[in-house]
Here is the input.
Amino acid sequence: MLRSSTDAEIAQRPDLERARQFQQRAALENAAGHAARGQRLIRRALTVLRTPDEHDDRQCDPDRCRLTTRMLATLAKSTVEIEGIEAALPVMDRSLSWSECLGDIELTALMLSQRALILFRGGRLEEAEATFGTALALMQDGGPDAVRVLINRGALYVEQSALANARSDLSRAARLSRGLGDRQFEHIALHNLGCLEFTAGDLPRSLRLMQASLELDGHTLEGLTHLDRSRVLLAAGLPEEADAALVEAAELFRRDRCWQDLGEVDLTRAEVALLTGRSEDARRLAARARDRFRRHGNDRWRRAAELVLLHADLAVGRPAARLLPHATRLADEFADDGFPVQARTALLLAAELELDLDRPAQADALLDRVGPISETDTIAVRLHSRLVRAEILELEGRLPAARRQVALGLRDLAAYQAQFGGIDLQSASAVHGRRLAAHDLDLALRSGRPASVVAAVERSRAVSGRIRSVTPPADERTAELLAELRRAVDVATATGSTRTGDPAPRQIAELQAELRSRSWLNSGSRAWQPPVRLRDLRATAAEGDCDLVTITQFRGRLGAVTIPAGGPMRLVELGDVETVRGWHRRLSADLDVLANAGLPPVMTAAVSRSLLHGAAELGRLLAPAFPTSVRPLVISPPSALLALPWPLLPELAGRPVTVTPALSGWLRARESLRVRPADDGRWAVAAVAGPGLPRARTEAAAVADIWARRAEVRDLASATSADLLDAMATGRVVHVAAHGVHRGENPMFSSLSMTGGPLFAYELDQRAQSPEHVVLSACDAGRSTVRAGEEALGLTSVLLQLGTAGVVAGVARVHDDAAAEIMQRYHAELAGGRDAAEALCLVGEQVDLPSPFVCFGAAWSA
Here is the structure.
């Protein structure tokens, strides 16, 4: 019988001991994702032992055989990452041949598990699953080797969408790892559970699990961690953040020569490029990924790359007739290999190509193969299916049915957005519905029916404002990060440190990134409201004696539906989008210049003339949208025009104007004001002053004095961010006289300057309550950033989405003295019984300088 030596005996054999040390180090490098390092170390081990290619039964040494078996298995693991499955499997077979003489069941099981892992990485999933099962049956239950197999088989089940099996294996692996005190295995198990929840469609839970795994161990499989997380971020509608994670992953994989993983990075970056409209980049990246997978013999991933490449080819306009055979071939190959999700995606693409060839019957036949839409399908598959079905129905002349399909798709998207617990992801995830929303509007515009256009706009506009908000749980780490961020901003402001390479801006960016990523972990209410019905909009407009306008943007042109109180609706064409934006930029620039103190009279006169000219040109372009009356006007423009200084247009002079992201939001805000509970005594007004504005305290004191006879007033001079948050939670009206900063590149960190550091829009999203009316006497507080899904994000939009009925804010810079005068007059009119839009309109006529303040949401009144 063969006998193995003890560790002490092996220690007396320098060649065995050195080789074993190299093998152990190589195994650790492989586990950490450093395949190239692992390969170099294991080759040194094989050289130390002078290992022959074939096992020789006549010269069998059990210790040497055992170690060689492990060394070759470790080499196979490195090889599959660097060279692919066809190079790795022969190495693994050599490993198994060296173990045959030992009769060691546990070692055989371990080698089988390694072979299964290689099969898995090479895309041969059914073989891998069977081999994992065989290995697990031979292993000691609950030991480290069994934990490793459970982790790997769980990941395989995730790939196969066998989620119940995956959850069972990975949850068990996490429990066993915790019991063994193995943080590395627990990290991998939790991370893979995050991948499982991503496949299951619960993105916040996926991100929470991935975050928990990082907090356990941030270095093991670092590249794969970035890669998997990037896929979740992409699905959440954060392509830029996903691409940044992919760039980090690529650097790690390239360093370690992990070509399979580099191919997956290229493929995911191709998907990012497709989502952001960079079709040529998508083609280049997908083709490079396809070539990598082909060289490594991984047919499963090669097909995935070909599918993305076909989508990119279609986007750049390659002929449908050339693409169709490849799409149908891929659908068949995916189906034959047991990948139903990818097969359905290929069939949907093929159906879309058939429609491009004007063959709706053939497209319909392909959709029959796709089958019914399921909640387990990805949001991309669901929306694509709805779009293709709608296009087929449209070609068949069944327009009502086509519109229903689009409407159902946009309902799916709203439900998807509602899974997120923060405004950042709620607004970002709208990007997935761009094609469907555009097609919805296209159908409505071609119908020529104003009612259809309004309905189409309301289905997709400002959906995040219709999601029921939730208060995130208390989080000490978030509070610490916010305190650090405030200090860092104060340091940067005090030192004038603004360059990217300076320590303060770098620290600020890092803190903002961590805070944002923490907000992504919160689950939403999953509750959302449908858009309001047109008849309810018309009834509310008639009741309030006001006119409504919806402005549309489609294929570079603006249009509008006018809804006069009690009159017929009209659908009108307006100007070119870029022309309007150009005049908007010029108008904003002129307002910013006029806000400067001490401007020479000659320059003031010139800029004022420019401002009047720009306002007149904008008014001329947009005038057909405005009903000819003197009634108050409610305008719902595209997100890019929300921050236009509407009251300055000559056609709107003397007319109360309210601007709302969506008419549905306006109606619900009015309803919330109408049904607000009766006051138990006097209600609260807070007048808040921030630092650095000479007139801020005087302005706040004047506002407090105006309301003193009607309300419980808090005059908060030198207010901190905590004071302002408390005022937001307890006051019905909050007036803020402070510097404001809009961060276009990171709108959730737009801020109001307070004593002790700024208050960020991010913090407002963490609160349970918001006032009925907020007045932001601050520069730029009304500006917003338009995200890829046409959702606007900034201080004002955050307040509206959280339930504030109306916000008055500036859309450009304003001189301190002018702001103080405008605000005092505004509150005097408000306290005298005017609503917000009326008060702002009257004040605009009373002051000499142009007012950049706009009434957003709904016109609040006391």
User: Anything to note?
Assistant: DSSP finds 36 helices and 16 strands in the chain. The CA atoms of residues 423 and 719 lie 26 Å apart.
